[in-house]
Amino acid sequence: RLPNGVDRRRFRPPLAPPRARPPRLLFLGRLDEQKRPDLLLEAFAGLVGAPDAADALPPELELHFAGEGPWRARLEASARALGLEGRVRFLGLCADAPGLLRSGPLALALPSVAEGMPNAVLEALACGVPVVASDLPGTREAAGDAALLVPPGDLPALRAALARVLADDGLRARLAAAGPERARSFDLDALAARHLALFHELAGSAPRIAPPLRPSALLPPAGAGLRVLGGAARSLRAALGGRLTRSFGGGDTRDEPARAAPPSPDPKEDP
Fold first, then answer.
1. Which CATH number covers residue 55?
2. In terms of residue numbers, what domain contains 117?
3. Whole-prediction pTM
């Protein structure tokens, strides 16, 4: 199984650590029952409302939700009911995830109850943002020991992990340093090369590309993720002389020789 990848040219640590004001905890994803933003809101309320925990937190700490989804109105109502209107912000759809992650959030929190391999975790790691997330197979594969992982749906464990990462400058520094190194394993160039190798294997042919194809050459200037695979497939198709289509039984017959149409039946003959 091939993992997701992250464009480390776009998602990278800032040259100088930004001083974000106010300090903030970030959620990046869809506001729905899979991602469990309500659990994060409840954990945040418990942190800022508990005197023993609040004293150790950065002053004026805020929680920012970047994303949209069917639970937004419900979350906004919950924030008001908890008296957190001034400390919880809903940013809506995020058009610039690299900029948001490089702007200095203290941590990314993703308390999902189900995930494949979450892109938000890979992107935060690549940007050097500490991550607190649910301990799910795909998240564990992505983060390794470069994040704090908690049992899915466990509110006390989530609150405790958030308290640790928000109050401990040394822990945040360690996670911030470990994240980009971990993200190297999911670099898009390396992932494109692995996809090319898989395509060649499935097609049953070694590549005939001269000069050798560099996966980075497939990436457009801004990255653009999945278009890498389209470029890889086109390059492979050219290299294999059309055999890829026939190997998979595809419907594209542009490489097949033209065939004459069968003669029309004589209308005088009986069918």
1. 3.40.50.2000
2. 24-189
3. 0.73
